[in-house]
């Protein structure tokens, strides 16, 4: 079984080497992320900022972050 496994690994490694050599000789072509990645990132950041800016300023949500005046002590029960 060991020679079969070694042969299989050798074929796998050889296939990876051939693929690497083939890709090294190809001319680099920019993909979608290279072309539009920064634009998509900036667009997402703008939408994120706009939505949360609206929520914080216009939605009228009372956040109630301070517990002052909301917590009242109760009588101790014996």
UniProtKB/TrEMBL annotation:
<keyword id="KW-0999">Mitochondrion inner membrane</keyword>
<dbReference type="Pfam" id="PF05392">
    <property type="entry name" value="COX7B"/>
</dbReference>
<dbReference type="InterPro" id="IPR023272">
    <property type="entry name" value="Cyt_c_oxidase_suVIIB_dom_sf"/>
</dbReference>
<keyword id="KW-1133">Transmembrane helix</keyword>
<protein>
    <recommendedName>
        <fullName>Cytochrome c oxidase subunit 7B, mitochondrial</fullName>
    </recommendedName>
</protein>
<comment type="pathway">
    <text>Energy metabolism; oxidative phosphorylation.</text>
</comment>
<dbReference type="GO" id="GO:0006123">
    <property type="term" value="P:mitochondrial electron transport, cytochrome c to oxygen"/>
</dbReference>
<dbReference type="GO" id="GO:0005743">
    <property type="term" value="C:mitochondrial inner membrane"/>
</dbReference>
<keyword id="KW-0472">Membrane</keyword>
<keyword id="KW-0809">Transit peptide</keyword>
<dbReference type="GO" id="GO:0045277">
    <property type="term" value="C:respiratory chain complex IV"/>
</dbReference>
<feature type="transmembrane region" description="Helical">
    <location>
        <begin position="36"/>
        <end position="55"/>
    </location>
</feature>
<dbReference type="InterPro" id="IPR008433">
    <property type="entry name" value="Cyt_c_oxidase_suVIIB"/>
</dbReference>
<keyword id="KW-0812">Transmembrane</keyword>
<comment type="similarity">
    <text>Belongs to the cytochrome c oxidase VIIb family.</text>
</comment>
<keyword id="KW-0496">Mitochondrion</keyword>
